[in-house]
Design a protein that fits this description.
By secondary structure, the chain is α/β, with parallel strands linked by helices. 30% of the residues lie in helices and 32% in strands. It contains 7 helices and 16 strands. The strands form 4 sheets. A 5-stranded parallel β-sheet has the order 2-1-3-4-5, with helices on both faces. A hairpin with a 2-residue loop joins strand 12 and strand 13. The longest helix is centred in the middle third of the chain and has 15 residues, at 109-123. It is elongated.
Length: 247
């Protein structure tokens, strides 16, 4: 499991530390920037899942200016404004940058967490895939964002060993732990759209990079972790057809 990477642009040290502490307790890894120059440098050198921007930085609307530059250069990172600025003029200017959320200080903690989830969903255009329940997820090409209690955890897709169907749920067996999400295997497979994942049974999807051995006569797959997966005749034939088997 990897923590969500969040950049916080905030010039108030006290507010930055308070907010960072709260977000870290909810499985975010925080990078702080006290001005727009620092923030822009971090954005160009690191990957962030989401960004929180204060608007007024050292008396100037640098949060809005930074958002405009990110949009102009096509840097597609979901961001939201968290500000004490309530004036209509500032709000209208901020809207031009297409923020995913505009929140006012003092913030409501639960509202902020929900807003961050919505920002992630909107970025990957998978509305309603994260909910208040702990059984939903949203996928990017490389990561799986899974709801866990009041936060969202980020799981590297490549860390998934296999997926097992359990009634209406899919159980994801990963290097970092197991996760249960309310998706059909067919839907999850389509969302992953990853050639490394092959269906080997009506109830199993396997990461081929995690396969150690295959016993075709016994219809059995052994993973690097030692876990054993059933291999049905239907999917075995398709697997052999799609992969070169040396004899």
């Amino acid at each position: 499991m990897k923590k969500l990477q969040l950049l916080l642009l905030e010039d108030s040290e006290e507010e930055a530390l308070e907010l960072s502490s709260f977000l870290e307790d909810n499985d975010y890894e925080i990078s702080l920037a006290k001005n727009a120059v620092e923030a822009e440098k971090l954005i160009r050198n690191r990957f962030f899942d989401v960004i929180i921007l204060d608007i007024m930085i050292n008396g100037k609307p640098d949060g809005i200016s930074l958002a405009h530059r990110l949009n102009k250069e096509g840097i597609n990172v979901p961001f939201l404004f968290l500000t004490s600025m309530q004036g209509r003029e500032v709000f209208d200017e901020a809207k031009l940058t297409n923020p995913l959320v505009y929140l006012l200080k003092p913030y409501n903690k639960l509202e902020l967490l929900f807003s961050l989830e919505l920002a992630i969903e909107s970025c990957y255009q998978q509305s309603n895939s994260i909910s208040l329940a702990s059984d939903n997820a949203v996928l990017s090409p490389a990561f799986l964002f899974i709801k866990k209690k009041r936060s969202v955890v980020k799981v590297d897709v490549s860390s998934i060993n296999y997926v097992e169907v359990k009634e209406k749920y899919c159980s994801l067996i990963c290097d970092s732990g197991n996760y249960l999400i309310k998706l059909s295997l067919t839907k999850l497979k389509d969302m992953l759209s990853n050639p490394d994942f092959k269906q080997v049974h009506r109830n199993y999807l396997v990461n081929v990079k995690k396969i150690k051995e295959i016993y075709f006569e016994d219809n059995l797959i052994v993973l690097d972790s030692g876990e054993k997966i059933l291999f049905s005749e239907r999917y075995k034939n398709a697997f052999i057809k799609d992969n070169t088997i040396f004899r």
